[in-house]
Amino acid sequence: MSILYIMRHGMAEEAAPSGRDADRRLTDRGRRRTAQVARGLSRLGVAPGVIFTSPLVRSVETASIVAHAFPECTLEELPELAAGGAAPATVRALHCAASASRVLLVGHEPDLSELISYLLTSSPGLAPVEFKKASVAALRVSGFPPRSGAILRWLMTAKQLARL
Q1: SS3 at position 70
Q2: Closest to 157 (Cα-Cα) out of 1, 17, 3, 7
């Protein structure tokens, strides 16, 4: 069995100076909270071998902060995690992680909630999940790419992870 960790990006600015949504950066508070979440994940024994992130700036920044806490993992962008990515396409894209046993995805809402639902039930809307900024879910999956029938091991908010 493998573990798939799914994380929503940290708190980001309302608008980027460029006006482009893709350029929105984490706020100072978002960076601090993400670093606290990374420490909490480490205390839980989370040890991803690879982190895949959306190419949007706020996700890349989130993933980079988390990767700093796990120096042995690799960090890669996965275009399917960009805002608006469909769950089946994201799952198919994870074929590149076939040799990994622990993978962390960093992306956006509502895509991540739909991905979790899809992995649990084969439907992106059947099991709605409230997924706040910098929250993390852990799912047990059969491997990569994962198939439906995943088991939700835990879901924690950034506040809960920061308290660990």
Answers
A1: coil
A2: 7
Distance, in Å, from the CA atom of 163 to the CA atom of 161, rounded to the nearest integer, reads 5
What does the buried/exposed string (b/e) look like for 60-95 if buried means 16 or more CB atoms within 10 Å of the residue's CB?
A: bbbbbbbbebbeebebebbebbbbebebeebbebbe
The pLDDT of residue 64 is 98
CB 158 within 8 A of CB 164: no
Closest CA to 23 of 49, 64, 54, 63: 54
How remote is the C-alpha of 80 from its chain's centroid?
12
How many angstroms separate the CA atoms of 35 and 26, rounded?
12
Distance CA 107, CA 93 (A): 14
Instruction: Supply the pLDDT for residue 148.
Output: 75
- On the question of pLDDT at 76 being above 80, the answer is yes
